[in-house]
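Input record (one chain):
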Amino acid sequence: MTRDLSDLDHASPEDPTATASSDSRLSAYADPVNSEAVARARALAAGLKTRLQTAAKPAPVVEAAYLLNEARDPDCPLLERLRILGLLASVLDHYFVEKAPALSESDQAEIAASLDPLLQQSYVELNESLLPALSDEHGIEIRRPQELDLPQREYLRILFRQQLYPLLTPLAVDPGHPFPFISSHSINLLVHLSSPDLGIGPLSHARIKVPRLMSRFVSIPSTTKKRLYIWSEDAVTGFLDELFPGMQIESVYLFRVLRASSGSRNGDELEAQSRGLRHQQLASPVARLEVESAMPDSVVEWLSSNLQVPFQLCFRSAGPLALFQLVDLANLANPLD
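The corresponding structure, as predicted from the sequence alone:
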């Protein structure tokens, strides 16, 4: 399952596991005009190949541990460390989409249990080391909406109304509405609503898909020398009152779904696809459910039940989902074009 180090550069938001041609795969890991960076990229790939040949553990566990260790290396340039951490996320997405569905449930559960602590450590590295260093070395900060001042909040609200609101389609999830189809690789909000004006408690859930067309890092005007950004999902979450006027928002949780590759479908399913049946009938099974760490166990169980994904394939993330897009963050500091 070894992947070259520039897969991220050619991966689309639709499918971050897309593969590039062998001649251009190093470009996402390091600036191709920087010979030292290219040399480090090749050394990283060679080290990973050697580790895979000699290790007794499953390949995805070996890859994740190796890449995490490299992302922690203080001697490695910061932006390369960010890209390596993004590569780790991309490699694991590829594993869950392409490889895991072919394994037995017990093997999947065993590998998932080994991957989970590595994923948690990657968030610690990102939040406690890489992002603070990005601010210090490159003047780039990622803020949360509550950390913005009033003019910045107003700027973001205008952006939401003019650019994001037309792209959002909340789908109700209650006894009167079936659980909606969740596309693979999408980042979603699960919103719990109530109606205080009616004097009754929680009414339903609603699902909102974060638009794929928007940048993952939304630029915010700054009065300092820092360049400020917020995560795309925060640009939606911060203004849900605009989508649900008169409703009380009880809770909001993020989740992301990965589905098995369509190549695993059998002939009957492919024939059904050609007949134009509904997406729900055609969807490959969910191979991984990623949720934010604050989501209660009861909600994770409810979500996993509706998505028909085993609980052992549900992962909590102590930070932003879809970390493969860290390559885009590195490119903001040092564009490759």
